């Protein structure tokens, strides 16, 4: 339940943070001018208000990501049971059994020559 709420908050913060970053005016103008030039002035006085808001949203995004990661890591913890060591066979021993016969060509020149 709490993880679902965190995922919803995480998604909303991602969308809001992306929008706010696009509204900021960079050296070249920014996307804020495409919406009537009200980008930075909407969030506060000049660039200080939007910069603080962006910083708070970024910190919230990182904190929520860490909390979700910790919650998921705790769920997936498993303890590996010790296994018996694999038997090591002696590579110098030849396995006994029926000999393997390899197909021979008998000088016929391959499968395509009839």
Describe the protein in words.
There is one protein chain. This protein is mainly α and 114 residues long. The chain has a domain at 38-76. Helix content is 48%, strand content 0%. It has helices spanning 2-23, 39-43, 48-75. Helix 1 (2-23) runs antiparallel to helix 3 (48-75). The longest helix is centred in the middle third of the chain and has 28 residues, at 48-75.
Could you name the key traits of this structure?
single chain, mainly alpha, 3 helices, 48% helix, elongated
Question: Structural class from helices and strands?
Answer: mainly alpha
Low-pLDDT residue intervals, each spanning 5 or more residues: none
Mean pLDDT: 74
Indicate the proportion of strand residues: under 5%
Q: Can you write the helix and strand succession as a string? A: HHH
Total number of strands: 0
Radius of gyration: 33 Å
First-residue to last-residue Cα separation: 74 Å
Largest sheet: none
The backbone outline, from C-alpha atoms, is elongated
Number of helices: 3
What is the share of helical residues?
Answer: 40-55%
Short précis:
By secondary structure, the chain is mainly α.
Outline the fold blueprint.
Layout: H1 2-23, H2 39-43, H3 48-75
Helix pairs in contact: 1-3
């Amino acid at each position: 339940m709490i993880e679902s709420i965190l995922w919803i908050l995480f998604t909303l913060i991602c969308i809001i943070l992306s929008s706010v970053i696009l509204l900021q005016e960079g050296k070249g103008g920014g996307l804020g001018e495409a919406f009537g030039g009200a980008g930075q002035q909407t969030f506060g006085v000049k660039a200080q208000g939007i910069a603080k808001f962006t910083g708070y949203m970024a910190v919230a995004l990182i904190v929520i990501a860490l909390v979700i990661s910790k919650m998921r890591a705790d769920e997936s913890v498993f303890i590996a049971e010790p296994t018996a060591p694999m038997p090591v066979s002696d590579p110098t021993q030849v396995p006994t059994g029926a000999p393997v016969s390899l197909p021979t060509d008998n000088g016929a020149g391959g499968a395509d020559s009839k």
